[in-house]
């Protein structure tokens, strides 16, 4: 009797251990699947063209060379110009920083109004804004192109900032509104009794409480705006293109020899800012992604 | 002396919903008014209207003799303490208390003086540089009161400030509020759903139900002369016994007949009034039904009833019996020999009987 | 006077954003809808002619391909991402020691621009120098993986890249959902002797229905908007074999100078999104307002 129990529990333990090991191995394989492209990008960018042509995709570089990076940054061709990614990287910065800050600020104020200063129609306005987040932007491309032309902002970075702010309002308002809804309204009442008005309550009471959601919103907006391509390619010109458009130009340019290492280096350069933000503040990034989605 | 708060014909609607209907209340300086009633009766809404945090749909509100119906909260000379205290989370206790003064543009020096005074009064000096998150429930309540005190208002408004505290703390803080009221002589309007709080704190009580004022009176009046069945049942613990009965004229008085299951009805001889409808509800508090052994006196009707349940409660013993189809509670001495199933002699205090119209539920005045 | 101001400040503050949304979202949708009913080519004409553009659209073989691709890509992308995401989430839920690191690894693709993703996978799937060449180099001479340049298979490369990008997000959603299940229910089931896999299939997964819905909505939305990925990965090719409505619209608008077709294709995209998102939003807002 005891032998039976002993052996079954032993097989059970072995079974459990095998399962555990299987799990880890499976997870490792998946991790490889996700890391592989990054690995390939990095290694390819460090190889010479010869090595790329003769070697294997997944092999480490025999001779590490940073030449491709230099080309990518300052001399790769994006169509007619061959100035590398540097000017376009700067364009993206000029675009992203103001757009992120402005859309976050507007979202904070809007969220504050909708969450704490209910008035007739506030919910309807919120629903309309929310729906605006979901539209496929193709449906506004044509009229926006015309409107930017009429406003004298066609092909300019200012125009792009404007576009990103307008279409970012929906999301930023959603984030702040959901956050402010969790702050008790009695706080507003107490402040009213104390004599504070709309702006003072926002400035002295709500904004100091908002650091977590401000971080989430900024990270989310920065990632969206930096990584955007559709608005960039539709509303910019040769000199004002953001880095994603420039990257695509470099990779898909039909002139000359395909320099795969330069392509990869360019891709990494374009991806670096959002990747760094992700690694450093990933927790907040995930919170932004799941904001409103999990609770439903 | 002019009333410190006067509410006339106040109506409040929310869309098509009637939240408050024709409310009329006035209190004098130094009064402690308690608005009490079940959830949803409109008491908090009324308080918010007095504060000016909610607009009203009809009627007027006067504070300190001035019409405040359309005045914003900060100019109404009021201060408010909220159920969750609503302390500003990112500010220190000191900043919480002086925030209102800062908004009003009061000189820093004066702010400091008033802060020190209030801190001393409420014994919160050691807490001044802490944040609300670092305070206990009782401490937060004191800070909230400090914030109110520093405004030097004509009227203090309290919105269920003790509901978030545990039972023991609640009793402690209740006493503190009563002491504060006595020391300051301030006028207070206090909202609660707990009728014990209402009875112990108030100088005047407003009982509300469904947005309508049921009765306004002193705790004693509310207790002994409830205006209708609802007030009779809601206020006082244990609740007043409400027993259906039939009234039959008997000479210049009435025979009030209460059915008893499987036995002779209990007949009370009411001599105080000449008018009673046929169907009445008799109201009598448990402490007015005693053990005939120990209760002597005039105006006692003695009758023998069968005991259903015996509930010892320390100094008293509560005994339940069945009258008029209802469970009636009597408060007896601890040494009563009552046991379930036994018949003992009860003394009903005829002076304390209340009568209510069985149809309308209103109190019947004795004429 | 200032009381009136106090009462209306919230509305006044919200007004500019609201006006912006009205004009730049709803107004623009209206404009595009209008143009889709005209004969506009290079420049917009405003005389409504009826459903001419839509007839043209639905008769166009290129649009047919785009729509077919949308269904193929959409279906595979959503289903595979959900399965993979769920699988990863369940695996990570097993109290793995390196969970934090693994989560970071699975999720980082979401932080990348789709252009970067497309570029990377374009390289990996390069027939001559990418995966195919590598596997051949390992000795499998007959291995072919030329999907990227094969008109019939190219759309599946978009699926591969898309799943790589989005499954981490689905995993994050599901993991949060798995963890939000009441632990006491699980303990009760364990005491009852129910095997782990059964606990998942019978208790946990059914209780996550709302999250499945959320994930579906987000993925569907991503699928319909897919533009960047296709441009970078295949450029819509070979030919227009990997065209999607989004790329079709862009080509019509900016390369072919056919605003009418661009507008009509955009409106069809709008209609698809509308049909999926509106019922979802409606039920969500209902729940939020009631609660």
What does this structure look like?
The complex is a heterotrimer of chains A (296), B (367) and C (291). Chain A is mainly alpha-helical and 296 residues long. Chain A folds into two domains: 2-65, no CATH class; 86-290, MetI-like (MetI-like fold). Chain A has helices at 2-45, 49-54, 67-74, 86-116, 122-134, 138-150, 157-181, 186-193, 198-206, 211-227, 230-235, 243-252, 260-290. The longest helix of chain A is centred in the first third of the chain and has 44 residues, at 2-45. Mean pLDDT of chain A is 86; it is low at 292-296. The model of chain B has no long low-confidence stretch (mean pLDDT 90). The two termini of chain B are 33 Å apart. Chain B has 367 residues and is an alpha+beta fold. Chain C is an all-alpha fold and 291 residues long. Chain C is 74% helix and 0% strand. In chain C, helix 8 (183-191) runs antiparallel to helix 9 (196-207) and helix 12 (245-255) crosses helix 13. Chain C is flat and about 70 Å long. Chains in contact: A-B, A-C. Chains A and C meet through helix 1, helix 4, helix 5, helix 6 and helix 7 of A and helix 1, helix 3, helix 4, helix 5 and helix 6 of C.
Short summary:
The complex is a heterotrimer of chains A (296), B (367) and C (291). Chain A is mostly helical.
């Amino acid at each position: 009797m005891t032998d039976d129990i002993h052996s079954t529990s032993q097989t059970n333990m072995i079974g459990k251990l095998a399962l555990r090991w299987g799990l880890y191995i499976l997870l490792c394989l998946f991790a490889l699947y996700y890391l592989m492209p990054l690995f390939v990008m990095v290694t390819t960018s460090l190889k010479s063209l010869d090595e790329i042509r003769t070697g294997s995709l997944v092999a480490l570089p025999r001779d590490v060379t940073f030449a491709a990076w230099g080309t990518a940054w300052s001399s790769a061709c994006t169509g007619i110009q061959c100035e590398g990614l540097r000017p376009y990287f700067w364009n993206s910065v000029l675009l992203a920083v103001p757009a992120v800050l402005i859309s976050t600020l507007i979202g904070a104020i809007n969220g504050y109004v909708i969450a704490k200063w209910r008035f007739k129609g506030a919910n309807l306005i919120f629903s309309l804004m929310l729906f605006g987040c979901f539209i496929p932007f193709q449906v506004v491309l044509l009229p926006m192109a015309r409107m930017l032309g009429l406003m004298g902002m066609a092909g300019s970075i200012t125009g792009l900032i404007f576009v990103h702010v307008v279409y970012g309002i929906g999301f930023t308002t959603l984030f702040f509104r959901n956050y402010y809804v969790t702050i008790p309204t009695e706080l507003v009442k107490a402040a009213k009794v104390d004599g504070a008005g709309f702006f003072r309550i926002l400035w002295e009471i709500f904004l100091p409480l908002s650091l977590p959601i401000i971080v989430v919103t900024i990270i989310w907006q920065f990632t969206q705006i930096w990584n955007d391509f559709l608005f960039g390619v539709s509303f910019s010109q040769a000199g004002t293109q953001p880095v994603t458009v420039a990257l695509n130009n470099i990779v898909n340019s039909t002139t000359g020899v395909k320099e795969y290492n330069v392509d990869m280096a360019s891709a990494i350069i374009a991806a670096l800012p959002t990747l760094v933000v992700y690694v450093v503040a990933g927790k907040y990034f995930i919170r932004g992604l799941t904001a409103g989605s999990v609770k439903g | 002396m002019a009333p410190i708060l006067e509410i006339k014909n106040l109506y409040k609607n929310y869309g098509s919903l009637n939240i408050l209907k024709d409310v009329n209340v006035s209190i004098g300086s130094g009064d402690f008014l308690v608005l009490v009633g079940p959830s949803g009766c409109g008491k908090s809404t009324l308080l918010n209207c007095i504060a000016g945090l909610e607009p009203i749909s009809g009627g007027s509100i006067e504070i300190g003799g001035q019409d405040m119906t359309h005045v914003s909260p900060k100019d109404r000379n009021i201060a408010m303490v909220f159920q969750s205290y609503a302390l500003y989370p990112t500010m220190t206790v000191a900043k919480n208390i002086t925030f209102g003064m800062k908004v009003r543009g009061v000189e820093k020096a004066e702010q400091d003086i008033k802060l020190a005074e209030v801190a001393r009064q409420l014994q919160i000096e050691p807490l001044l540089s802490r944040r609300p998150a670092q305070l206990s429930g009782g401490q937060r309540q004191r800070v909230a009161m400090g914030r109110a005190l520093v405004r030097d208002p004509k009227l203090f408004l309290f919105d269920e400030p003790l509901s978030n505290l545990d039972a023991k703390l609640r009793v402690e803080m209740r006493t503190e509020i009563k002491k504060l009221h006595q020391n300051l002589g301030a006028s207070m309007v206090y909202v609660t759903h707990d009728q014990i709080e209402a009875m112990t704190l108030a100088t005047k009580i407003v009982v509300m139900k469904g947005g309508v004022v049921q009765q306004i009176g002193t705790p004693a009046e509310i207790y002994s002369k409830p205006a209708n069945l609802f007030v009779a049942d809601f206020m006082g613990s244990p609740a007043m016994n409400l027993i259906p009965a039939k009234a039959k004229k008997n000479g210049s008085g009435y025979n009030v007949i209460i059915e008893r299951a499987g036995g002779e009805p209990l007949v009370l001889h009411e001599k105080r009034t000449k008018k009673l409808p046929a169907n009445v509800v008799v109201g009598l508090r448990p402490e007015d039904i005693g053990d005939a052994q120990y209760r002597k006196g005039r105006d006692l009707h003695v009758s023998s009833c069968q005991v259903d349940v015996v509930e010892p409660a320390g100094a008293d013993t509560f005994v339940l019996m069945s009258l008029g189809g209802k469970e009636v509670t009597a408060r007896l001495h601890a040494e009563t020999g009552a046991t379930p199933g036994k018949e003992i002699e009860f003394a009903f205090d005829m002076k304390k009987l209340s009568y209510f119209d069985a149809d309308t539920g209103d109190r019947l005045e004795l004429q | 006077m200032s009381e009136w101001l106090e009462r209306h400040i919230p509305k006044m503050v919200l007004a500019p954003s609201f006006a912006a949304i009205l004009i730049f979202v709803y107004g623009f949708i209206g404009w595009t809808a209008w143009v889709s009913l005209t004969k506009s080519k290079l420049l917009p004409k405003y005389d409504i002619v009826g459903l001419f553009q839509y007839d043209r659209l639905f008769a166009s073989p290129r649009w047919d391909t785009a729509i077919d691709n949308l269904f193929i890509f959409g279906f595979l992308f959503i289903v595979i991402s959900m399965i993979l995401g769920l699988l990863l989430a369940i695996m990570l839920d097993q109290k793995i020691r390196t969970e934090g690191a693994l989560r970071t690894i699975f999720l980082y693709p979401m932080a990348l621009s789709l252009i970067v993703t497309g570029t990377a996978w374009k390289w990996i799937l390069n027939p001559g120098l990418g995966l195919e060449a590598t596997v051949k180099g390992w000795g499998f001479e007959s291995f072919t993986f030329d999907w990227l340049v094969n008109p019939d298979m190219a759309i599946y490369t978009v699926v591969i890249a898309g799943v790589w990008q989005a499954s981490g997000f689905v995993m994050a959603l599901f993991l949060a959902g798995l963890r939000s299940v009441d632990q006491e229910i699980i303990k009760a089931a364990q005491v009852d002797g129910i095997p782990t896999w059964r606990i998942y299939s019978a208790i946990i997964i059914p209780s996550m229905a709302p999250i499945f819905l959320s994930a579906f909505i987000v993925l569907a939305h991503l699928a319909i908007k897919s533009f960047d990925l296709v441009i970078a990965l295949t450029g819509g090719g070979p030919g227009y074999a990997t065209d999607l409505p989004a790329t079709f619209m862009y080509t019509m608008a900016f390369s072919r100078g056919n605003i009418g077709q661009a507008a009509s294709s955009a409106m069809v995209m709008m209609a698809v999104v509308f049909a999926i998102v509106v019922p979802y939003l409606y039920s969500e807002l209902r729940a939020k307002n009631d609660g």
